[in-house]
Amino acid sequence: MTTIHTNIALSDKELDANSYQTMPFLKDQIKNKNYKITDVFKTVAFPMGVYSKKIKSLKDLKKGDKIGVPNDPANELRALQLFQSAGVIKLKKGADVSATKKDVVENKLNLQIVELDAAQLPSQLNQFAAAAINTNFAMGAGLTLNKDAIFHEPLKNNPYSNYFVVRTENKNDKVVVKTIKKYYQSAAVKKFIKEKFDGSVVPAW
Length: 205
Fold this sequence. Notes:
Layout: H1 3-11, E1 18-22, H2 23-33, E2 37-45, E3 49-51, E4 66-70, H3 75-85, E5 90-91, E6 104-106, E7 112-116, E8 130-133, H4 135-140, H5 145-148, E9 151-152, E10 161-167, H6 174-184, H7 187-197, E11 202-203
């Protein structure tokens, strides 16, 4: 089941909850699809990282270098914001989930920004000076945030937390929401996440 189909299934009552999406993505889905769904608690964050096989720091980027970003809504904005936070580029004010490389207003190194399917970025990493890669795809390629990323989003208070989402009518449900939240946001789960993923996945609560 794809991520978009997961929200359809939730809206159509084939599922009672899902947990995979960030707030910008969720808001975009609600706005454009008119789903009657809502977030009820934070789960984990997958901090996005910048990876490279050619440079050790983004300060080593040279004029005309290629950098890779995911080409899907929300993730491209996230990647561009990551490069912006490193001082590499600057986005126009108010850039939203529909942002692309066309929304870059400052690019002092005249970097070539290549938009590519997120799943392809790890296998194409050699083609870039650096690329912003979603953590799930990075992990699938054997890359870890703490050991391999040359720059990454904050591990604490990450702005792209994932959320547990239910139909709005069920937002106060005792079992679907309150009981699951109690067990999910527990000390045992937090300890497991920290030990298992070493920073590539972090508790968001």
